[in-house]
Amino acid sequence: MSIKEMIKNEVDKLPEGLLAEVFDFIQFLEIKRNKNIFAKASQELSTASFKKIWDNKEDAVYDSL
Q: Do 16 and 8 contact (CB within 8 A), yes or no?
């Protein structure tokens, strides 16, 4: 049995009053995941721009730290 099926089975056992909390938690996890995806994408997009700033002769001494 997959984890998804196990979760579905547990959700089916819950009383109606707790389902709203489960739904809120699922939405929280989705928002958290989307924020992480956005942050990583932003970092990757900005790397090329910052490379020009980070890779220069004046700051080469700091590369070995």
A: no
